[in-house]
Fold this protein.
Amino acid sequence: MMNFLISAFKSLPTPFYYYDLELLKANLAALKKASSPEYIVHYALKANANDKILATIKNAGIGADCVSGNEVKKAVEAGFKANEIAFAGVGKSDEEILTGLKSDIFCFNSESAEELKVINELAAKYNKIARIALRINPNVHANTHKYITTGLEENKFGINLWELDSVMQLIKNCSNLKLIGIHFHIGSQINDLSNFKNLCTKSNEIQQWFEERNYMLEHINVGGGLGVDYHHPDDNSVPDYKGYFEVFDKFLELRKEQKLHFELGRAIVAQCGSLISKVLYVKKGVSTSFVILDAGMTELIRPALYQSYHKIENISTANDQFSIDNSHKYDVVGPICESSDCFGKAVMLPETNRGDLFAIRTTGAYGEVMSSNYNLREKAKAVYSDEL
Ligand SMILES: *Cc1c(COP(=O)(O)O)cnc(C)c1O
């Protein structure tokens, strides 16, 4: 179990997100150590855009990956260098494109022919040259939950291979676009590295396609998606970055001077966050008992949205032998009026009582950022390890 500061937690209003900044720093140090000079890592802001998290990541010398105009603005405000900001997204509005143009960002990862035309028009109007990478749909499986797979032809993302010819014709006629790279992002929470190997193979083929037409690409961007260990957050608190980069090192054919970009979100921030919640009631059912928490799908929607697993711990009873000896199964649920508002079914936990504190682990990514005020709930606060 993580070293939670139970005594400090007891005096704080629940639920709240707890962020271990030391762990985040250890993660970033491991990432830096495993990376190499021709690799450029961008942090995907959509995983967690809290100021303190962003400041810590920026200080590690990492770029930013944004999927909205407001994320671009946020990245600039947080001090990320404009020439290290990539901007992806299947539906960028004119206003969002302008935000990117005015900030002189590194690159627009463009997802359709129609979008390219709009970027070109707006760039011409404001006398800018927009740097472009084509987000190509490589038709590679990610073997992850269907809601977080993005690299198949049936997904809405990217330009399909059979469209490339006409898109390249279009780019030739767009004088305010400069094609500098190609971009992929095949999905999220990918733990089987062979999926990335397949992406490398596809990327090599596509790179060749461009070279045969005399286009030299300055960079290849392989997106993000590296998974984390939701089942063993303490044993694997930092992802295997070395193994991850080795796949690209071995299988992706990088040309001389060419840079390889990555856009990691979850892998960087997931393990440093925990949702801390108090037990409101323990309700005995016929075959199950329910632990009813004061946190629900409004604070953490991943279980309801993607059927995702999070490790659940009763942190009040960590050293209470009687409770541990009387462990049994509980359904751990939230207070929201939805049956999907459930964090875990038949979870083995120590004997649990009203007032106990629970930690829902590995919630630093796609947790707080996806919270809502459904049922007119208050937004949960963020608490950082350096403030306790
Ligand atoms: C979400 C997203 C990422 C980050 O994905 P993770 O699985 O969190 O690493 C990277 N690139 C793009 C384009 C994305 O949409």
